[in-house]
Amino acid sequence: MFKDKACIVGVGETPFCRKPGSGLSEMGIQLKASLSALEDAGLKAAQIDGILPFPNVGKAEAFAASLGCENLRFAATLHMGGAAPVGSLRMAAMAVTSGAADYVMVPGGWNGYSGARVRETAANDVNSIPGGEIARDFYLPFGLTAPPQWYALMARRHMHEYGTTEEQLGAVALAMRKHAQLNPAAVMHGKPLTMADYLASPMISSPYRLLDCCVETDGAAAFIVTTVERARDLRRKPVYVMGAAAGQPYPADEITNRADFHRTGLTNAAPEAFRMAGVTPADADFAQIYDCFTFEVIQQLEEAGFCKRGEGGAFVEHGGIELGGRLPVNTHGGLLSQAHVLGISHVVEAVRQLRGEAGARQVADAEIGVVTGWGDFGDGSIAVLRR
Amino acid sequence: MSENAMPYDKPLPSLTGLHGEFYAWCRDRELRFQRCTGCGRYRHVPRDICAHCSSMEWEWARSSGRGTVFTWTEVVRALHPAFAAATPYAPVVVEMEEGVRLLSRVVDCAAGELAIGMPVEVDFLEVGDAVTLPVFRRSVL
Ligand SMILES: [Zn+2]
Question: Which of B13, B91, B111 has the CB atom closest to A144's CB atom?
Answer without folding.
Answer: B91
